[in-house]
Amino acid sequence: GIILEYVEGGESKTRSIDLLDLRPDTDATALVEEIQKREPLITASCLEHVIHLVQRLQEKLGEKQKHKFSLFKVLRTHILPLTNVAFNKSGSRFITGSYDRTCKLWDTESGEELHSLEGHRNVVYAIAFNNPYGDKIATGSFDKTCKLWSTETGKCFYTFRGHSAEIVCLSFNPQSTLLATGSMDTTAKLWDLEKGEEVATLNGHSAEIIALSFNTTGDRIITGSFDHTVIVWDVGTGRLLHTLIGHRGEISSAQFNWDCSLIVTGSMDKTCMLWDAAAGTPVATLAVHGKEVLDVCFDRAGQRIATASADGSARVYNAATKECIAKLEGHEDEISKVCFNPRGNCILTASSDKTARLWDAATGHCLQILEGHADEIFSCAFNYKGDTIITGSKDNSCRIWH
Known about the structure:
This protein is mainly beta. The chain has helices at 28-38, 44-62; strands spanning 2-8, 11-17, 71-76, 82-87, 93-98, 103-107, 113-117, 124-129, 136-141, 146-150, 156-160, 167-172, 178-183, 188-192, 197-202, 209-214, 220-225, 230-234, 240-244, 251-256, 262-267, 271-276, 281-288, 293-298, 304-309, 314-318, 324-328, 335-340, 346-351, 356-360, 366-370, 377-382, 389-393, 397-401. The chain has a 4-stranded antiparallel sheet with strand order 3-34-33-32, with no helix packed on it. Helix 1 packs across helix 2. The two termini are 29 Å apart.
C-alpha cells in the first residue's frame, strides 16, 4: 500500500491506499488514474510520483524468490554456548552473546572478530544493536546488570544497575534515546541513554518478564510474562495502560504490527492471540498448534503473522481476515524462532532438528534447507536487504549464508 500524509485543520493526518490487487502486469498509470477519481488527495501535481511508486512496487512484486542461499562462513564464536545473535541494520556487523560472559562483535564479510565486550560477571543473555543507527550495543546479563557499549571502540559507556535478578530481554526504542530491560525480578526498567540513568520501573507483573517490545513510534512498550499476561505501558509516564488477559500459559513472545494498532502474542498454552493495541482487548485467537507456541511475528507491513511451535510446524495467518494461509511442515523437531524476510514473501525458521528452513510465505512451500550445524539452532536473522542470513547454534558456532 501507499500512505498519504496531509494536513487538515492544522493537524497532520495519514490515509493509506490499499494496493492488494496490484500485480506485475497491471497498467500502473490506469490504476493510479482510477484511484485518483476516488481519492482527492492525489492531485495532478503528485500523480507522476504516485505512478512511479506503484511501478516500483510492481518491480518488487515481479522479483521472485530465486535467491538460493549458500554457506559463506562458519565462525567458531565462543568457547561456551551462544545465547543470542543479532545484525546491525545493513548486516555488515553482527553480535553474539554467550555463556562465556562476553558479547563479541563480528565483521560479516571478513568473519573477523572486531571487539570482545568483557566485564559481565555471568552469562550474557540478551543483546541488541540500536538499529537503525548501529553505533551502540546493549548487553543484558544474568549478573543482573545491563551494559551499553560503543560499537566503534568496544568501550563500555554505562553499567545499568537496579534489577534484583537476571536480565533476560532488552530493546532500544526506535529513536535510540531509551533502553528497556526485562528481568526475572518481575519488573522492566527504562534507562536514559544520554544521562545513563534509570527513568522508570514498570511494576505490574507477578512473575518473570521474558519478552518486551516497543511499538514503531516508541510511545508504547509491551512486556510478556510467565504470569500469562502481556502489559501495555505508556513509555513517557511509565504508566500501566492495559493488561492483556486471555492466555492460559506463560507468554513466549509479543510484538506490535507496523502501524501500532495490533499486538500479537504467543503462549505456552498452544495458542497465538491478536489484540487491539489501543483498547487492550482480544481480537482473535489464532494458532491451534499441537504444542506450545514458541515464537510469533508480523511481517514488516503487518499483513501477515507467522507462528512457530514446539510441535515442529509453523503457520502463516492473514492479519486482516485471521485465516490460516499456509502450514509450514517439514522440520523434525521444535521450531524456536520464526521471522519474515524484509520483503515479507519469505519466512525463515530455526529448529532443534539442527536445520533452518526457508519457506514461501504465500504457499508454505519449503524453498531451501540450511544444513550443517551439529546441534539445535536457536537463533536466526535476516539483514535489512534480505540477502544474508545468520544462524546461531548450540554447537557454539554461527553460520553466515549469502
